[in-house]
UniProtKB/TrEMBL annotation:
Name of the protein in question: Ubiquitin-conjugating enzyme E2 32-like isoform X1
Keywords on record: Membrane, Transmembrane, Transmembrane helix
InterPro entries: Ub_conjugating_enzyme, UBC, UBQ-conjugating_enzyme/RWD
Domain UBC core stretches: 12-155
TM ranges: 245-262
Pfam families to which the protein is assigned, alphabetical: UQ_con
C-alpha cells in the first residue's frame, strides 16, 4: 500500500479520506470492499438480480475539494450495465454535482452503486443495456479472476479485494447448461410428488384427531359425571327457598315495626285521644 507521507495530512480532504478509511476498516461489509489507492474497490452484484454472485471491480477518483465536490466512478470488470474504464453517470457522481451532499461518503456511494445496477439505464452516460442472460454469464465469469489493471501495487490490491469478495458472494448457476436445471427438476419432482397435498394432510390430521379424541367419548358414562350433571338443580331450588324466606322475613319485620308505632301512638298522653275524637 502506498505510503501517506507524500500527502498533506492537514488538508481537509485528506482528513476526511483518512476518517473514511478508518470507518470502513472498523466496519467491513459483505457487499463491497475498498482500499485507498485512488480508492480501488470491488462490489458484489445485488441479490435477487441477474448480477447476483458477480464481483465487479472499479476505481473512485476523489477531487481535491472532496467532500464538497462529488467523486467519479468507473468499473474495470465487464458487467453489461456500465462501460468499463469510463466515468459513469450517477446522481452521486461528478456528472451531477448539484445532487452531491458533503455528508455522503465512499461507503454511501458504493451502496448506491450496487442499488443502481439492476435499474433501467435510460440512456445515461456510460450505461449499457444487455439481456439478463448475458449479464448472468458475465457474473459467472467475473468470479474466475480479477481484472488486470495498473501497476503491480494496484494489481495486488485488486487481487486482495477479489479474494475477500469470493468468500462473501453466493455461487451463480453456469450459463448455457439447461440440462442442469432439467436434472434438478427431475430430482426434485419425485420429492415433491412424495409430499402429501394439503387435502391429504387435512385428512391425515383429521384421522389423528379422531384417534386422540376417542377416549373422552366414554367419559359421560361415569356415575360421578351424572351426579355432577344433576348437582346444579338442587342448588337452584335452595336459592329460591332462601329468597322466599328472606322476603317473608322482611314483610314480618315491617309489620312488627308498624304495630309498635301504632301502640306508641295510642299510649301517647292526651294527644292520641284528641286525635281520635276529632276524626
Amino acid at each position: 500500500m502506498a505510503t501517506m507521507d507524500k500527502y498533506n495530512l492537514k488538508n481537509p480532504a485528506m482528513k476526511r479520506i483518512l476518517q473514511e478509511i478508518k470507518e470502513m476498516q472498523s466496519s467491513p461489509s459483505d457487499d463491497f470492499m475498498s482500499l485507498p489507492l485512488e480508492w480501488q474497490f470491488g462490489i458484489a452484484g445485488p441479490r435477487d438480480s441477474e448480477f447476483e454472485g458477480g464481483i465487479y471491480h472499479g476505481r473512485i477518483q476523489l477531487p481535491a475539494e472532496y467532500p464538497f465536490k462529488p467523486p467519479s466512478f468507473m468499473l474495470l470488470t465487464p458487467n453489461s450495465r456500465f462501460e468499463t474504464q469510463t466515468k459513469i453517470c450517477l446522481s452521486m457522481s461528478n456528472h451531477h454535482p448539484e445532487h452531491w451532499q458533503p455528508s455522503w461518503s465512499v461507503r454511501t456511494a458504493l451502496v448506491a452503486l450496487i442499488a443502481f445496477m439492476p435499474t433501467n439505464p435510460n440512456g445515461a452516460l456510460g450505461s449499457l443495456d444487455f439481456k439478463k442472460e448475458e449479464r448472468r454469464a458475465l457474473a459467472v465469469k467475473s468470479q474466475e479472476a480479477a481484472p488486470r489493471f495498473g501497476s503491480p501495487e494496484r494489481q495486488k490490491l485488486i487481487d486482495e479485494i477479489h479474494e475477500y469478495l469470493l468468500t462473501k458472494v453466493p455461487p451463480v448457476p453456469q450459463p448455457g447448461k439447461p440440462a442442469l436445471s432439467d436434472e434438478h427438476s427431475a430430482i426434485t419432482q419425485p420429492e415433491e410428488a412424495a409430499r402429501p397435498t394439503e387435502h391429504e394432510e387435512a385428512i391425515q390430521n383429521h384421522e389423528r384427531n379422531e384417534i386422540v379424541e376417542e377416549p373422552p367419548r366414554h367419559v359421560p358414562e361415569r356415575p360421578i359425571l351424572g351426579h355432577e350433571f344433576h348437582q346444579p338443580q338442587p342448588l337452584a331450588q335452595r336459592r329460591r327457598v332462601q329468597r322466599c324466606l328472606l322476603t317473608w322475613a322482611t314483610v314480618g319485620l315491617m309489620m312488627a315495626i308498624a304495630i309498635l308505632l301504632l301502640k306508641k301512638l295510642m299510649k301517647s298522653s292526651g294527644y292520641g285521644a284528641v286525635f281520635l275524637d276529632d276524626s
